[in-house]
C-alpha cells in the first residue's frame, strides 16, 4: 500500500489528520489481530489515509449492524429454546412427549413440520395451511395462465416462422426463375436492339424519301390544300379529254392508209393539229382553274 506519488502526512498541521491516523491505525490493528497477523508497514499519505478512513467507517458501520442483527437473532434463539422447553414440558405433562409417541406419529409430525416449512408458515394450524395452500393455488393459476400465454405466443411465433419460411422459399424459387429468364430476356433485348437499329435506318430512309417526294410535288405545283375530291374531278376532266382526243388520234392513224395527196393530207393534218392543240389548251385551263380554286 505504498503510494510513491504522494507526500507523507504532516501530523503537526492539525488535530484532524492525527485523529484520522489514530482511527485508521486502531482499525487496522483490530482487523489484522482478528486473523492473527501483524499490520504491514507502509507510508501514510493523505490519499491512503482518506481511503482507509472511508473503509474503516464503512466496516465499523457494517460490523455494528451485524452485531445488532446477531444480538437480535441470539435473543430470538433464546426465546425459541425457552418456548420449546415449555412446550416440551407441556407435552410431557399430558403424555405426548416425543419419546413416548409411536414412530408413525413422530413421522407424521415431522411431515407436518416439513410441509409448514415448505409453505413458509409459522404454525401448523389448519387456517394457516389453508391460507398457504390458497396462496399456492393462486400462484399456480398465475403460472398456468402465464404458461398458456407463453404457449399461445409460441404458437403464433411458430406460425409466423412457418409463413416466413414459406415466403422465403417462394422468393428463392422466384429469384431462381428470374435468374433463368435473364439469358432469354437478354437475347430478346439484343434482338429488339438490332430491330431498333434497322427501324432507325428505315426511318431515316423514309424521311429522306418523304423529303424528295415533297420537293417533287412542290415542283409540279401540288400542295397539301388539294383535296381528294379535286383530284377526282381533275381525273374526270382528263378522261373526257382523252375521249375527245382519241377519235382525232384514230383519224390521224387512218390517214396513214390513204394514197399520198399532199394538199389534202396537209389540210387534214393541220385541222387535227388545231383540234389537238385546242384540247390541250382546254385541259391546261381546267388544271389551272382547279389549282387556283384550291389556293
UniProtKB/TrEMBL annotation:
**What processes does the entry annotate via GO biological process terms?**
cell division; spindle assembly
One Pfam entry for this protein is HAUS1
Coiled-coil residue windows: none
Key words, A-Z: Cell cycle, Cell division, Coiled coil, Cytoplasm, Cytoskeleton, Microtubule, Mitosis
Specify whether Coiled coil is a keyword of the entry.
Answer: yes
Top-level taxon of the source organism:
Eukaryota
Protein's UniProt name: HAUS augmin-like complex subunit 1
